[in-house]
């Protein structure tokens, strides 16, 4: 296992220890002096429906404290309650039912509490929308929540894949366990505009600023709920909450005690095991342990369409560049670059392709995807409403990730440490995250380096050189023999193809392992980074008046320590790159008209090492009508931003054929790549530099991406058992970050004609040459406007049957966009879900049908259109209460439709499983 790194967290904690120790000592002393150490008395009973059905998973809390528990399979609970200060009030809650308060003056072991369905259908509370607890119906923005029971019924192998059943959410799976989620457009395979949090800790990889799905997150057994904010959220969450927030809330060991085990097995050699154990060791001390292991045969991408950059269409006799073939070299025949074996003037200007390797070829027997997670936490109640939590996590996984290429992330993972002091009035939180790469490798580099390898140890002729020399000679020989062009081309491909490195050759296995094991850019395909993210944040809530005025204030500081030994960033082994950002926020809320009108204004200021400060405001209003406030109308305006990722800022990766480079200096001046491929123009520029002007590029230094969004919506019960959540939004985006390939000097200056000529002759062989092919990031000046509608309808017929349906419309406004402008919108115009869920006696079930319209996807790896696709997912559980067990069966994509969610990604097929869950309380 990776070495853990507690000194980093210690470095964060040390400056705070004197103040924290004094605060905790005073708090603890106060607790000791105001309480008599009388033995805790226990209360117990059963929570059920009005018709007498048990409610497993209902929560029971002492009002105003962190002391609580949850019910078992039979709806039973047992809770230690201190009565030395007089009567206590128990708060009993269950999703979809009215919470009930029960006052107790003494211990009672015969409690029987019946909950009734909520008059407004949903009594759920959320904390993410306003960073304080509030009813979901009155949240100021569009927000969804999955409860523990709903999470258990998700049949997708990756929990984020199940979020596609919700309205307005786009899911993109680059492989079985690497899933990206986005809202309101601009979908990618790496979720860089949606912040993913576990208990408010960022799950991103510090080196890349992306969240690898739930690959290194928490197991489903420990998920109490998932909350999803749609749209801009920087006013409370800062950088990168451009399109939303996903918050995973884990289970409190004080509330959810016991041992839970879940085992699943199924198609594609699926083996999935999860274990959770939580125990209150005393009334004040509790522990929690989580462990999980997942393995299956991964999905493999096999799209053999021609890429947009291919000089020839698919099926061409000259060959072509396919999306999921790697190392697909193209050679353009020119008089100045004549190969031995013949004179082929009729081929001048044409490109012949050397067939590359498929994804299956390169991954070989390494197609197992996996996820291993281990977590331990200790929680201590300093007072009934003041809790200290310390935890450590280790997670690693193997999957395929897609960005500028496809990467086999093998043993990619994180270690994370957290210390948190939390009360009903606020928190102080510190955490540290370290990422590591294991033995991950890039498929494009692997394929190309295999083609560039010598045909024999110590040799000087590569497989690519041998292929084209043989190709040229075979073509010439066929033409001299009188064969037509088509026949000669076919003969050349056949003869040259016989000289290629074959996957069946023992040398292929040897070279593959050597290249995968080599970290040197341009020589090996192995990826390497090892960076740290240190974060400290605090928040305090104030009730300013008794007339509904409240204030939330908070601040955060974040530091990155980037390390790659010069293989991803321009760092060194003993000197990491330091980057930082910090900010402060506040939110003022006022309720009026007998709490039927809630007004709120939030604002946050963030500053950065490399960028100007940013201000993110949000103003909102929620009007609640009806006898039970069951009709809730909301309106909001907000601005958000995304800071460039660490790679966009500090990238420096020289892969010999070019340099991938960040852009936080003075920008870049260079030339169109097409110019670099024209020796005639380069020769003319020696005497007249003015001929280069039409090909000039000027790229300014990076700045923040920004969006402004107006939203209106309704959430409530339109009929006694019918719940509607609908919204309309309109957004304007500015300064979107993209990337461009051009010719320039690595220091950002514009090459002279002489430098261009020198660079042309050594571009792919001399890494010391300042003039290179560069791939750099830039902000697009074009404003992009979008709008959309979401609507979700739920009919709560009875506990045995709830019918759901939702529809999402996303529209890209092209009226102001120039022809051919790339927006990277990547979002279907129409999509919808229909489903049913319920509980009948010991049976529980969930079935959902999802349809997504085909659309254009402009990805860094490849651009193309994906077709309409649909998926049918189902779950069935049978509870055995006396055995504290549930037999489970699930299936995703039941009809095995060709479900391609990412252009260049795999077809996601059927996956069925059987399982058993045991819960011992």
Automatic annotation (TrEMBL):
The entry assigns this protein to a family as follows: Belongs to the TonB-dependent receptor family.
Which positions make up the signal peptide? 1-21
Might you name a Gene Ontology BP term for this protein? Answer: siderophore transmembrane transport
For this protein, what is any one GO molecular function term? Answer: siderophore uptake transmembrane transporter activity
Say if the entry is tagged with keyword Lipid metabolism.
Answer: no
Q: Is Oxidoreductase among the key words of this record?
A: no
**Which residues does the UniProt record annotate as the domain TonB-dependent receptor-like beta-barrel?**
459-893
Q: What is this protein called?
A: Uncharacterized protein
Extract one GO cellular component term from the record. Answer: cell outer membrane
Annotated Gene3D superfamilies? Carboxypeptidase-like, regulatory domain (2.60.40.1120), TonB-dependent receptor, beta-barrel domain (2.40.170.20), TonB-dependent receptor, plug domain (2.170.130.10)
Domain (TonB-dependent receptor plug) spans 138-245
Q: How does it sit in the membrane?
A: Multi-pass membrane protein
Q: Which InterPro entries match?
A: Beta-barrel_TonB (IPR000531), Beta-barrel_TonB_sf (IPR036942), CarboxyPept-like_regulatory (IPR008969), Plug_dom (IPR012910), Plug_dom_sf (IPR037066), TonB-dep_rcpt-like (IPR039426)
Q: Which SUPFAM superfamilies match?
A: Carboxypeptidase regulatory domain-like, Porins
Q: Which UniProt keywords apply?
A: Cell outer membrane, Membrane, Receptor, Signal, TonB box, Transmembrane, Transmembrane beta strand, Transport
Q: Name one Pfam family in it.
A: CarbopepD_reg_2
Q: Where is this protein localized, as stated in its record?
A: Cell outer membrane
């Amino acid at each position: 296992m990776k070495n853990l790194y507690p000194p980093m967290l210690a470095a964060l904690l040390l400056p705070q220890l004197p103040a924290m120790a004094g605060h905790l000592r005073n708090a603890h002393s106060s607790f000791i002096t105001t309480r008599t150490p009388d033995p805790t008395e226990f209360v117990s009973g059963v929570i059920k429906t009005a018709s007498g059905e048990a409610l497993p998973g209902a929560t029971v809390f002492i009002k105003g404290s962190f002391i609580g528990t949850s019910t078992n399979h039979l709806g039973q609970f047992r809770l230690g309650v201190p009565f030395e200060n007089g009567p206590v009030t128990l708060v009993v809650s269950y999703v979809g039912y009215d919470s009930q308060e029960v006052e107790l003056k003494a211990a009672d072991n015969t409690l029987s509490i019946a909950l009734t369905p909520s008059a407004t259908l949903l009594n759920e509370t959320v904390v993410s929308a306003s960073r304080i607890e509030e009813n979901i119906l009155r949240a100021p923005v569009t927000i969804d929540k999955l409860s523990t029971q709903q999470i258990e019924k998700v049949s997708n192998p990756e929990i984020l894949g199940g979020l596609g059943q919700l309205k307005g959410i786009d899911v993109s799976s680059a492989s079985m366990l690497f899933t990206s989620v986005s809202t309101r457009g601009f979908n990618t395979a790496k979720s860089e505009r949606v912040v993913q949090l576990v208990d408010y800790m960022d799950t991103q990889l510090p080196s890349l600023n992306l969240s690898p799905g739930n690959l290194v997150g928490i197991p489903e057994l420990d998920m109490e709920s998932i909350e999803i904010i749609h749209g801009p959220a920087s006013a409370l969450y800062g950088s990168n909450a451009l399109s939303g927030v996903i918050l995973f809330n884990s289970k409190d060991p004080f509330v959810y005690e016991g041992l839970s085990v879940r085992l699943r097995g199924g198609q594609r050699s699926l083996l999935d095991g999860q274990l959770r154990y939580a125990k209150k060791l005393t009334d004040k001390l509790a522990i929690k342990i989580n462990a999980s292991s997942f393995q299956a045969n991964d999905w493999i991408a096999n799209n053999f369409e021609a890429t947009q950059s291919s000089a020839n269409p698919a099926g061409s006799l000259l060959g072509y560049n396919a999306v999921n073939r790697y190392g697909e070299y193209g050679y353009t025949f020119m008089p100045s670059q004549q190969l031995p074996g013949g004179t082929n003037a009729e081929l001048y200007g044409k490109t012949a392709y050397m067939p590359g390797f498929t994804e299956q070829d390169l991954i070989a027997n390494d197609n197992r995807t996996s996820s291993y997670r281990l977590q331990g936490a200790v929680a201590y109640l300093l007072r009934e409403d003041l809790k200290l939590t310390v935890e450590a996590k280790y997670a690693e996984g193997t999957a395929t990730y897609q960005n500028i290429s496809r990467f086999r992330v093998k043993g990619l993972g994180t270690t994370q440490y957290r210390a948190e002091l939390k009360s009903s009035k606020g928190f102080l939180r510190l955490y540290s995250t370290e990422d590591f790469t294991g033995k991950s490798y890039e498929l494009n580099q692997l394929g190309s380096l295999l083609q560039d390898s010598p045909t024999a140890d110590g040799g000087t002729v590569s497989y690519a050189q041998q292929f084209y020399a043989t190709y040229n000679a075979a073509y010439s020989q066929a033409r001299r023999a009188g064969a037509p062009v088509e026949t000669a081309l076919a003969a050349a491909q056949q003869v040259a193809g016989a000289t290629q490195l074959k996957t069946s050759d023992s040398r292929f296995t040897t070279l593959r392992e050597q290249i995968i094991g080599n970290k040197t850019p341009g020589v090996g395909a192995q990826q390497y980074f090892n960076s740290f993210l240190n974060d400290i944040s605090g928040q305090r809530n104030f009730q300013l008046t008794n007339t509904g005025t409240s204030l939330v204030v908070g601040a955060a500081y974040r530091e990155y320590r980037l390390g790659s030994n010069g293989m991803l960033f321009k760092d060194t082994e003993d000197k990491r790159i330091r980057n930082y950002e910090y900010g402060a926020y506040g939110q003022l809320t006022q309720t009026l008209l007998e709490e039927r009108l809630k007004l709120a204004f939030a604002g946050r200021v963030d500053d950065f090492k490399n960028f100007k400060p940013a201000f993110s405001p949000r103003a909102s209003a929620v009007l609640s009508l009806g006898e039970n406030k069951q009709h809730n109308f909301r309106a909001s305006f907000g601005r958000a931003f995304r800071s460039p990722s660490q790679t966009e800022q500090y990238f420096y990766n020289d892969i010999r054929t070019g340099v991938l480079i960040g852009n936080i200096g003075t920008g870049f001046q260079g030339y169109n790549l097409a110019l670099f491929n024209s020796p005639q123009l380069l020769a003319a520029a020696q005497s007249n530099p003015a001929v280069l002007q039409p090909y000039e590029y000027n790229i300014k230094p990076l700045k923040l991406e920004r969006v402004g969004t107006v939203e209106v919506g309704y959430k409530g019960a339109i009929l006694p058992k019918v719940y509607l959540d609908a919204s309309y939004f309109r957004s304007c985006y500015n300064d979107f970050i993209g990337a461009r390939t051009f010719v320039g000097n690595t220091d950002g200056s514009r090459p002279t004609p002489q430098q261009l000529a020198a660079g042309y002759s050594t571009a792919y062989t001399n890494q010391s040459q300042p003039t290179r092919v560069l791939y750099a990031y830039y902000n697009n000046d074009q404003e992009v406007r979008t709008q959309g509608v979401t609507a979700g309808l739920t009919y709560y017929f009875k506990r045995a049957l709830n019918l759901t349906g939702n529809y999402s419309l996303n529209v890209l406004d092209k009226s102001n966009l120039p022809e051919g402008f790339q927006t990277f919108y990547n979002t279907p115009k129409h999509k919808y879900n229909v489903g049913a869920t319920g509980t009948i006696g010991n049976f529980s079930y969930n079935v959902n049908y999802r349809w997504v319209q085909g659309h254009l996807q402009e990805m860094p790896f490849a651009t193309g259109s994906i077709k309409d696709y649909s998926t049918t997912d189902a779950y069935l559980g049978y509870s055995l209460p006396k055995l504290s067990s549930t037999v489970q069966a699930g299936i995703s994509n039941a009809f095995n439709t060709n479900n391609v969610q990412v252009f260049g990604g795999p077809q996601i097929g059927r996956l069925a499983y059987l399982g058993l869950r045991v819960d011992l309380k």
